[in-house]
């Protein structure tokens, strides 16, 4: 068998893109270009510096040795893990898979073992950070053909929620359920705003409304409370957007969470999320990748979704409340891969990640850049509140 001609990584660039994203572009000496999305929302500049450091290793390397590079990038430093490093690796990993697909003339899902489904179910956000106008927003998603939505349970929550706070959460979800009917699903995001005590109080009240799942009832630092919450909750529990590798998912899975939500731009990219999904399958849990980000992150998520047997549903952020002035489709040559049909996305067959990035639009947008930061919330007494 003839020896494969060695292609080398020649150039790595990063672009701060409004509204709050970071893209990376990896180019080979033969002109193949892969795109990735390495970002921590609100800390994009820090991740950009991490990508620059990791690029020192990748320049001159064979882009098709993806697993070898993943091992070195994640383990080659004495200090490992964390959101910044894992997100930098994630974006580079996406770009390498994009290059591999182009080199082999196949979509990434084919390289992951082939598709196990023809379309992927998606959901849309309603309600914003301080959920309001839920009925009208839910009705708009019904009109758009969506079969599922996600909404925040509340704004800020006190440690032991009052009867009024609990009633507000239940009323908000009930309003959405009334509009959606029984044929569509609601996922409820606590965004880590609840204490374990608050979650145990609220979740049984939500059960009659049959949420698809309740997401991140407590912050990751309180993950040791998940067994209590799972036991107390008749509603499936989801978590994982702030976990960055398969080792961090082990305890939640042992606690009995039903849905894992690694983010393709945070949890080590395609390579690691694929492994997280496989580990979750051994616990009978399903995959619902977190993705309130840009087009590259969504494209990478979909490639995993199409090749993952225990996939449930995909988050996507078209029209989400964080996107002011720019949206996913602004940076695509052709928006067709993200055209919704009956609340689903069809399987992409183009090589690599299945999308074509409008490089001119990216470079133009990067001239403006962004300095997006998440809000800092406070309770009425002036103390810090989880956002």
From TrEMBL:
Keyword Magnesium: yes
The protein, known as: Galactonate dehydratase
Residues annotated as domain Mandelate racemase/muconate lactonizing enzyme C-terminal: 131-236
Entry GO MF terms: galactonate dehydratase activity; metal ion binding
Sorted UniProt keywords: Lyase, Magnesium, Metal-binding
Entry's Gene Ontology BP terms: amino acid catabolic process; D-galactonate catabolic process
Native organism: Micromonospora inositola
InterPro entries: DgoD-like, Enolase-like_C_sf, Enolase-like_N, Enolase_C-like, Galactonate_deHydtase, Mandel_Rmase/mucon_lact_enz_CS, Mandelate_racemase_C, Mandelate_racemase_N_dom
């Amino acid at each position: 068998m003839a020896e494969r001609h060695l292609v080398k990584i020649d150039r790595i660039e990063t672009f701060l893109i409004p509204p709050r994203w970071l893209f990376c572009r990896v180019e080979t000496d033969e002109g193949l270009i892969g795109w990735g999305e390495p970002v921590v929302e609100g800390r994009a500049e820090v991740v950009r510096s991490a990508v620059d450091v990791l690029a020192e290793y990748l320049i001159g390397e064979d882009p098709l040795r993806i697993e070898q590079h993943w091992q070195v990038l994640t383990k080659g430093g004495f200090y490992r893990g964390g959101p910044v490093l894992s997100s930098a690796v994630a974006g580079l990993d996406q770009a390498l898979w994009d290059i591999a697909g182009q080199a082999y003339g196949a979509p990434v899902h084919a390289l992951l073992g082939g598709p196990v489904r023809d379309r992927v179910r998606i959901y849309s956000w309603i309600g914003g950070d301080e959920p309001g106008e839920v009925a009208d927003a839910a009705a708009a998603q019904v009109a758009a053909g969506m079969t599922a939505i996600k909404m925040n349970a509340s704004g800020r929550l006190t440690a032991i929620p009052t009867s009024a706070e609990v009633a507000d959460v239940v009323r908000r979800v009930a309003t959405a359920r009334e509009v959606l009917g029984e044929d569509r699903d609601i996922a409820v995001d606590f965004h880590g705003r609840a204490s374990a005590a608050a979650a145990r109080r609220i979740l049984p009240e939500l059960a009659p409304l049959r949420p698809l799942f309740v997401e991140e009832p407590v912050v990751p630092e309180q993950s040791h409370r998940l067994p209590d919450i799972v036991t107390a909750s008749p509603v499936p529990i989801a978590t994982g957007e702030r976990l960055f590798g398969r080792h961090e998912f082990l305890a939640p899975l042992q606690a009995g969470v039903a849905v894992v939500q690694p983010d393709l731009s945070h949890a080590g990219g395609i390579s690691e999320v694929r492994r997280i999904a496989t580990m979750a399958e051994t616990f009978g849990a399903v995959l619902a990748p977190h993705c309130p980000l840009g087009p590259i992150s969504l494209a990478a998520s979909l490639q995993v979704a199409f090749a993952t047997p225990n996939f449930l549903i995909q988050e996507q952020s078209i029209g989400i409340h964080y996107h002011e002035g720019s949206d996913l489709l602004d940076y695509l040559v052709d928006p067709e891969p993200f055209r919704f049909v009956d609340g689903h996305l069809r399987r992409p067959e183009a090589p690599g990640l299945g999308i074509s990035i409008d490089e001119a639009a990216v470079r133009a947008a990067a001239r403006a850049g962004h300095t997006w930061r998440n809000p800092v919330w406070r309770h009425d007494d002036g103390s810090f509140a989880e956002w």
